[in-house]
Specification:
alpha+beta; four-stranded antiparallel beta sheet; 10 strands; 3 helices
Length: 183
């Protein structure tokens, strides 16, 4: 039994979690002089979760993967939504990084999540900006060489919004709450 465990552990630690939405991507190269580049990467233990820029879906954080965004210079809010556990009221909360981006520069954000334990579980996304003062600053580019580049395929956001609209249209009248239903 110990031999089996000794073989199984390295296999499990090398496995990465991938979403079914993201696909393998192509490198974008250096940012142009009039845009900024943001690279968001998930560490080895990251289960897929959505990442938003200014409340619009831009990709999914995945284990041992990264994706690149070309952004206009200026202020951006990168976020993700998690949920508290059953006994904490099940309320959603956000992880947010506010970034003031300069043209011609590349920025890095590490994304990972943690599950609570037991019935109180929940999912807590975490976003960490990699600043020039952090220990990760000098290591991030070397780390990303071992990670898989992923991208959100063209039209994915439109398909997700169409699916949401379709679900709303298909919902039976008895399954909705309208403003007049409140006391």
């Amino acid at each position: 039994m110990r031999r089996l465990a000794a073989l199984w552990l390295p296999f499990m630690t090398c496995c990465a979690f991938r979403s079914s939405v993201m696909t393998d991507g192509a490198p974008k190269g250096l940012p142009s002089p009039d845009e900024a580049r943001v690279v968001i990467y998930g560490d080895a233990r990251t289960e897929p979760f959505p990442i938003y820029s200014n409340k619009e879906l831009v990709g999914y954080a995945e284990g041992r993967c990264f994706f690149e965004l070309s952004c206009e210079p200026g202020e951006h809010a990168f976020s993700s939504i998690g949920h508290k556990g059953l006994f904490e009221g099940g309320v959603a909360f956000e992880a947010v990084v506010i970034a003031t981006l300069a043209a011609g520069k590349t920025y890095f954000i590490r994304a990972h999540g943690a599950h609570g334990s037991g019935c109180n579980g929940g999912f807590h996304p975490m976003l960490h900006p990699i600043s020039c003062r952090s220990d990760e600053w000098d290591k991030v580019e070397r780390l990303l060489r071992r990670y898989q580049l992923r991208s959100l395929p063209e039209g994915t956001l439109a398909r997700i919004k169409a699916t949401e609209r379709g679900l709303l249209e298909l919902t039976p009248e008895g399954s909705r709450l309208n403003p007049e239903d409140g006391r």
